[in-house]
From TrEMBL:
Source organism superkingdom: Bacteria
Membrane protein topology class: Multi-pass membrane protein
Chain ranges passing through the membrane: 7-23, 29-46, 58-80, 100-122, 134-156, 176-196, 226-243, 255-272, 279-299, 305-326
Cellular component per GO, a single term: plasma membrane
Subcellular location: Cell membrane
UniProt keyword rRNA-binding, yes or no: no
Keyword Hydrolase: no
Keyword annotations from UniProtKB, A to Z: Cell membrane, Membrane, Transmembrane, Transmembrane helix
Protein source organism: Microbaculum marinum
Protein name, UniProt field: Branched-chain amino acid ABC transporter permease
Length: 351
């Protein structure tokens, strides 16, 4: 079993490394897929494993996106002048290969740290809430963050911010950021897989099952919840920095703090694949990205209607997700043994 699993992981890594060369026309879409996997894995850390449905994770994406872009610019130019000129005007804002790589080398770690600090501050304030109160509060955080960015002229306000152009020295920009997204997704998967195997994983599951009993047993539930949110934010901050460079233009509402798209999609991907599982978010992200690209290609103008219909179908017919459905249909494939006598009696009762 272990050998088979290692072969599977090696095959996935090989596909990830070779994919840009096998499908060069879809590098941006594949890079977005890896980022979607990060979105789904980090959302499920709270929403699936801990039972706290957050609609505010998009805040960390936006914070990371802006911090990375502002760092890339601010290391070499005045941010106010750059955004006032929208990357052009009388002053030529150019970045050579060394400057560009330095900006990323500083910007992406700062994006992670900044998002983590924001998560620690917000988590300490709102993670005392439970249920729908927490969900509504986090939804408001995403909307508020978008409006603040929309009115902040130093970062471009409603006119948005142009991300520095990638110099010719880095080669194909889409391929360059594809590998950033790929490595981030692999690290996110390894991290959450490791966390679920530790006492921390047992603690967040205990909070999901019965938080009051977990507190009575001595678990510092608030600290555990904040820690889980900070872990999610660290990855989302880097993902936001990568996504901003992929999109090339940061709109505060439609890209950075896009609650209506990224904020909803990350929840949908987890539900589609299966909440509270390791591979469910990955499967859900892959299926969702393929369906989204299909809708955008063949149903242009109706793509959002199709996505809305898909959301309804998933919630109604696949409440446990693809992985949950497969586990119910083929339990033995997932390591669950069924006593033949029990199975026979269950079948007779169903008849």
């Amino acid at each position: 079993m272990m050998a088979r699993r290692l072969v599977g992981y090696a095959a996935i890594l090989a596909i990830g490394v070779l994919a840009p060369f096998l499908f060069p026309n879809y590098q941006s879409q594949m890079a977005e897929l890896w980022l979607f996997i990060v979105f789904a894995l980090t959302w499920d850390l709270l929403g699936g494993q801990m039972g706290y449905n957050s609609f505010g994770n998009v805040v960390f994406i936006g914070v990371g996106m802006y911090v990375c872009a502002l760092t890339q610019v601010g290391l070499f130019y005045s941010i106010a002048d750059y955004n006032a000129a929208k990357g052009g005007g009388q002053t030529v804002f150019t970045f050579d290969t060394v400057q560009y790589l330095e900006g990323l080398a500083v910007g992406l770690p700062l994006a992670a740290v900044s998002a983590g600090i924001v998560a620690a501050i917000l988590g300490s304030a709102v993670l005392g809430m439970r249920g729908h109160y927490f969900a509504i509060c986090t939804l408001g955080l995403g909307v508020a963050a978008g409006q603040i960015a929309n009115g902040w002229h130093w970062i471009g306000a409603g006119s948005g911010m142009v991300v520095p152009n990638a110099p010719p020295g880095i080669g194909d920009a889409s391929r360059f950021y594809y590998y950033f997204a790929f490595v981030l997704a692999v690290l996110a998967f390894i991290t959450v897989s490791w966390l679920y195997s530790t006492r921390f994983g047992l603690a967040i599951n205990a909070i999901r099952d019965n938080e009051d009993k977990a507190e009575a047993m001595g678990l510092p539930t608030t600290r555990i919840k904040v820690t889980a949110w900070v872990v999610s934010a660290l990855f989302l901050g880097v993902a936001g920095g990568i996504l901003g460079n992929l999109k090339r233009f940061i709109d505060p509402i439609e890209v950075a703090f896009a609650g209506a798209s990224f904020g909803v999609w990350m929840v949908l991907m987890v539900i589609l694949g299966g909440k509270g599982t390791l591979w469910g978010p990955v499967i859900g992200a892959i299926v969702f990205q393929f369906l989204k690209e299909f809708f955008w290609t063949y149903l242009l103008g109706w793509q959002r209607v199709a996505l809305g219909a898909m959301i309804v179908l998933i919630v109604v017919f696949f409440p446990q997700g693809i992985l949950g459905f497969l586990r119910q249909r083929f339990p033995e494939r997932f390591g669950h043994r069924i006593d033949p006598a029990i199975g026979r009696r269950a079948g007779e009762a169903a008849e």
